[in-house]
Amino acid sequence: MAFFTHRFLRSMSSTNSLAIKHITVIGGGLMGAGIAQVAAATGHSVILVDQAEDILKKSLKKIGDSVGRISKKKFIDKPEVGAEFVQQTLQKISTSTDPASAVRNTDLVVEAIVENVNVKQELFKKLDQCAPENTIFASNTSSLSIGEMANATTRLDRFGGLHFFNPVPLMKLVEVIQTPETSQQTFEALMNFTKALGKKPVACKDTPGFIVNRLLVPYMLEAVRLHERGHGSKEDIDVAMKMGAGYPMGPFELLDYVGLDTSKFIIDGWHKMDPDNPLFAPSALLNKLVDEGKLGKKTGEGFYKYS
Q1: Contacts of 196 (CB under 8 A, 6+ apart)
Q2: Is the Cα dihedral 275, 118, 210, 128 positive or negative?
Q3: Could you read off the pLDDT of 117-127 as tens digits, one per residue?
Q4: CA distance 185 to 159
Q5: In terms of C-beta density within 10 A (0-12 exposed, 13-18 middle, 19 or more buried), how is residue 15 classed?
Q6: pLDDT at 13 over 50
Q7: Does 175 participate in catalysis according to the annotation?
Q8: How far is Cα 157 from Cα 126, in angstroms, rounded to an integer?
Q9: What is the reported pLDDT for 112?
Q10: Which of 213, 227, 263, 283 is catalytic?
């Protein structure tokens, strides 16, 4: 009953109260740092949170290098303006190793930590006790249920998904996920925030893989099964999809780029949830490569070898 009372009271507030100006990003890895960067570059105040200072120092360096590269291209004829852009962006970002204090005065919390629903639930449960009632929570998960994470909190109406794509500063698309409990005000606030970042939001329901991964992962796995059946070499399949379908990368190239462990994690989760769906069937070859530590470009070998 308390949830519905809170939801009613929140619905009485104006839409303007949901304007997102200050965000807290939990996770200083590749995705978290990218989200922090684009938010700061568009004038938002950002607190980037991770477990250790050395991780945060590396994150800030990556952000600085990335912003520097972007400014050189964006302000090619005005280097002094570019330098000011870099400085202003970095000044918008502060760091913390204390998640509880980092969410006490924030409009939006974006989680970008390990893809483990139990770990995420535990994090959101703790943050729910510290963040203001009007703070919106969002996860950057690419495949896990937003609703499951929201259930660990008391703010089901102020919980949604913001799935950014890698690399965040360059990729324009953001999937904005609305659960059945996400209020329309919250959803609109997340859509508007995404637009304020200069991104293109698409509305998604809380279903496995949302839109992109729900189509992409089965496509990549079917390419692997095609190869397993001996119906095409990985090289020919990649060439066929690039030249015949106009894709920039073939499915095996894309699997290596994404990470074989990441793709396996997603398909294993979906298979556990819906074991009778043939699109979610595991691949023996993919499992073998992951077991051997051949995870793609990041390890130097996956379906292809990289020097």
Answers
A1: 20, 42, 44
A2: positive
A3: 999 999 999 99
A4: 11
A5: exposed
A6: no
A7: yes
A8: 17
A9: 97
A10: 213
The candidate with the shortest Cα–Cα distance to 286, out of 223, 237, 240, is 223
What's the pLDDT band for 76 if we cut at 50, 70, 90?
confident
- Which of 139, 140, 142, 183 is the catalytic position? 142
**Amino acid in position 77:** D
CA neighbours closer than 13 Å in the CB half-sphere of residue 160: 28
213 is catalytic: yes
From the list 140, 143, 163, 253, the catalytic residue is 163
Active site residue 163: yes
Q: State the residue for tokens 């990470």.
A: 259
Catalytic residue among 59, 66, 145, 175, which?
175
Give the pair of three-digit tokens for residue 66. Answer: 């990335």
How many Cβ atoms from other residues are within 10 Å of residue 124's Cβ?
22
210 near 163, Cβ under 8 Å? yes
Q: Is the pTM of the predicted complex or chain greater than 0.85? A: yes
Average pLDDT, the chain: 93
Would you place residue 14 in the very low, low, confident or very high pLDDT band (cuts 50, 70, 90)?
very low
Residue 188 has pLDDT above 70, yes or no: yes
Phi, psi at 60, each rounded to 5°: -65, -35
The SS3 call for residue 13 is coil
* Strand 108-111 with 136-139, pairing: parallel
H helix runs in the chain, sequence order: 2-11, 30-41, 53-74, 79-91, 99-102, 117-128, 146-150, 184-196, 212-228, 234-244, 251-258, 260-273, 284-291
